Automatic annotation (TrEMBL):
The keyword RNA-binding does not apply. InterPro entries: CAXX_Prtase_1 (IPR027057), Peptidase_M48 (IPR001915), Peptidase_M48_N (IPR032456). One of its GO terms (molecular function) is metal ion binding. PANTHER family: CAAX PRENYL PROTEASE 1 (PTHR10120). This is Unannotated protein.
């Protein structure tokens, strides 16, 4: 449930002593510059792509060269333009607030790694699209739309094996007693797990998290080592119950299916809106169109994500029957991650993939065991 102030337009936390006015204000001071930076990043990306769409001349060279080089060049320009802001928000301020454990060198390596991945994820699909257009100018969309959807599914399956190890090292949970408790919990949900992995998140930040990733044979449960360091066994079990709730409801699979459908739909929009997707001059137009479609879809994506998180929260309560642990766990998560406790309503609708901590505590207080 949400509590909206008719005066400020903010979400209002319930009258709960866990969230003092000082805590709300502190979280606000941390998050507001981050929201401004995100807006600036969006403006930079839209500005660069719009300028390129107007500036790039048709038939600037061989299609196979232009459609490969231009996406990488545009991602590079955007990355360079946003580098000062990214450094201030992602490195300097994270150190000021006591979250970051990275050196400048390690942060720079991460920034470069993210650039390379973004460049690859832009250049490869655009080049493949251009190749299909040149192969079959009339029927390319019949191959490209299902092909884009298939690539999203393949990525969802392979990401835990290919992408995630680029950023973290994963090891089996060493605490055998806790591991057995978590396996027993998973068996009670009808979603058994063979292994629980721990990510070395502490090398970057003190923030805590857990997640389920992968589809089918690569599906796995991952705990941050920071979560294990800051939460007791009952709280870890509650967090895992939440993730098992996602797994039992097949949220990852559903999300992958929706992303695949979105990729196919984007291809159809390009087919309708772009005269010649095989021309290098169309590259910035395609990238601008894709970015605009992501922004349009964002409120619906976050609303669905919040609904799934509420379902997972209810599942964690049903599985553990411990509203007291639910309360302490989410208070600890909110404190460790300095979660925004009272965001503006419009920002909440646009960006928040999870209910706020006050919403979650209110839901936990209202929960009753099923008869």
């Amino acid at each position: 449930m949400s509590y909206i102030s008719p005066v400020s337009g903010h979400l209002l936390p319930p009258n709960d002593p866990a969230f003092t006015s000082e805590a709300i204000e502190r979280a606000s001071r941390y998050h507001r510059p981050r929201y401004i930076a995100l807006l600036a990043d969006t403006v930079i990306s839209l500005g660069v792509l719009a300028a390129a769409a107007m500036w790039v001349h048709p038939r600037i060279g061989a299609w196979w060269l232009g459609c490969g080089v231009l996406p990488i060049s545009l991602v590079a320009v955007i990355s360079i333009a946003r580098l000062p802001l990214a450094y201030d928000i992602g490195f300097r301020r994270e150190h000021v607030w006591g979250f970051s454990a990275q050196s400048r060198w390690a942060w720079g390596v991460d920034f470069l790694r993210n650039f390379l991945l973004s460049a690859a994820f832009s250049a490869v699909p655009i080049w493949a699209l251009a190749a299909l257009v040149h192969w079959s100018p009339r029927w390319w969309v019949a191959v490209a739309a299902p092909g884009a959807a298939t690539l999203v599914v393949v990525f969802g399956v392979l990401a835990p094996l290919v992408m995630e190890p680029l950023f973290n090292r994963f090891t089996p949970l060493a605490d055998s007693e806790l591991a057995n408790r978590l396996r027993s919990l998973a068996e009670r949900t009808g979603t058994p797990i063979s292994n629980v992995l721990v990510a070395d998140a502490s090398k970057r930040s003190g923030k805590v998290n857990a997640y389920v990733s992968g589809v089918g044979p690569t599906r796995r449960l991952v705990l941050y080592d920071t979560l294990l360091a800051k939460a007791d066994a009952a709280e870890v079990e509650l967090v895992v119950a939440n993730e098992l709730g996602h797994r039992r409801a097949r949220h990852v699979a559903k999300g992958t299916a929706l992303a695949a459908a979105g990729a196919a739909l984007t291809t159809l929009v390009i087919w309708v809106a772009v005269d010649n997707p095989g021309d290098p001059a169309s590259v910035p137009v395609i990238m601008l169109l894709g970015f605009a479609l992501e922004l349009v879809a964002l409120p619906w994506q976050t609303a669905l994500s919040r609904q799934w998180e509420r379902e997972a929260d209810r599942a964690s309560l049903d599985l553990t029957g411990r509203p007291d642990v639910f309360r302490t766990a989410h208070m600890r998560l909110a404190e460790a991650n300095l979660s925004d406790l009272n965001p503006p309503r419009w920002l909440y609708r646009l960006l928040f993939t999870h209910p706020t901590p006050p919403e979650r505590l209110a839901a936990g207080a209202a929960w009753r065991p099923s008869s």
